[in-house]
Specification:
This protein is mainly alpha-helical. The protein has helices at about 10-20, 25-45, 55-70, 75-95, 125-140, 145-155, 160-165, 200-215, 240-250, 285-295, 300-310, 315-320, 325-335, and strands at about 170, 175-180, 195-200, 230, 235. It folds into two domains: about 10-115, Tyrosine recombinase, N-terminal domain (DNA polymerase, domain 1), CATH 1.10.150.130; about 125-285, Orthogonal Bundle (hpI Integrase, Chain A). A hairpin with a 4-residue loop joins strand 1 and strand 2 (about 175-180). One of its GO terms (biological process) is DNA recombination.
Length: about 350
């Protein structure tokens, strides 16, 4: 303890975030800050720990048990993600003499079976069709209509949708150009490796043309660029695509009966700002996962989906492909029958 330098939990988190700022994407940084925020809250309010020099293996285990059940029981995969991030955080604190040496080795994380380490929430083709049909009828060429259409038909990550400029849309070639431009606040997940052209259908191009001609605000962002999916204030915020998906994936939002028989007049999740609380709503990533599964189920080759969605085949198979094994077999059969 004599060799350690005192540090408060919130100060340690700020130091860690600043240290990782140049190493990871902004989305990863936000995720780490959110996960470790639970640990800081536990230190300050549950244990009244004001100096992380006091941390022990037993206290770290107590946090694990608290995190597992305090805000409602979390899934094993969520617990593993939380504890793995905590281990990285503690390992960093070891390097700056804030905690005891080798304390990170005492951060326990659950071992998961292969099927436990994947998430299965996704937008189904039926849900996507219902949402896009409703938007096409009542909110045609709106910002929400364009964002959801692009995410479903191109399998783009939400960050890639945000990066697009007017000049990245090539109507004559019916394509979008995905580019990594971190110097003007629009990085993409896989950086230069993620740069590519994405083909568009005539229907998607017609929608983009109508958005640009009739709905898109004529604005530039703070760097003088013209965002394709603009807001009256410039480029949309990084979380806007997710907010849009949460909002429009609620059944009541598109005029469907609530599966839980809730009254929209009394349901908190029926309010736009609380859309994510709806058990039936899904995240932006669930749209991407559902779109990838839909493309694979429609006999689009894995190599094509991998290149279009910018995800390597192994990751695609483990985290995105939700086809059952019998469906995969029947699809393979079509290629083998004539051999």
């Amino acid at each position: 303890m004599d060799d350690l330098e005192p540090i408060a939990p919130d100060e340690a988190l700020a130091l860690y975030i600043d240290h990782r700022r140049r190493e990871v994407a902004k989305s990863t940084l936000r995720s780490h800050k959110s996960r470790l925020g639970h640990f800081v809250r536990w230190c300050e309010h549950e244990k009244e720990i004001t100096n992380l020099n006091e941390l022990t293996g037993r206290l770290l285990h107590e946090f694990r048990l608290w995190r597992r059940s305090h805000d409602g029981e979390i899934k094993p995969v969520t617990e593993k993600t939380q504890m793995d991030t905590l281990r990285v955080f503690i390992r960093f604190l070891e390097t700056v003499d804030a905690v005891k040496p080798d304390l990170s080795e005492k951060v326990l994380s659950p071992d998961l079976d292969a099927d436990e380490n994947v998430r299965d929430d996704r937008l189904t083709p039926e849900q996507a069709e219902a949402i896009l049909t409703h938007l096409g009828k009542y909110e045609y060429a709106s910002r929400a209509h364009v964002v959801l259409t692009l995410q479903w038909h191109t399998m783009l990550r939400r960050g890639a949708v945000r990066t697009l400029d007017l000049s990245d849309y090539h109507p004559d070639d019916q394509s979008l150009e995905i580019r990594h431009r971190p110097e003007t606040d629009t990085p993409i997940k896989n950086k230069m490796v993620g740069e590519r052209f994405v083909a568009l259908s005539s229907e998607v191009c017609a929608l983009l043309d109508d958005w640009i001609d009739n709905q898109r605000p004529d604005v530039v962002d703070e760097f003088g660029r013209e965002p394709l999916i603009a807001t009256p204030h410039g480029r949309m915020h990084a979380t806007t695509p997710t907010t849009i998906v949460y909002n429009w994936s609620r059944p009541c939002r598109i005029g469907l009966q609530c599966p839980l028989n809730r009254d929209p007049e009394e349901c908190e999740a029926a309010e736009y700002v609380h859309a994510s609380k709806c058990p039936e709503s899904v995240s932006s990533h669930a749209v991407r996962r559902g779109a990838i599964t839909h493309h694979l189920s429609s006999d689009v080759p894995v190599e094509v989906v991998s290149a279009r969605a910018n995800v390597n085949p192994d990751t695609l198979d483990k985290h995105y492909d939700r086809r059952d094994e019998k469906t995969k077999m029947e699809q393979r059969r079509k290629y083998l029958n004539n051999i």
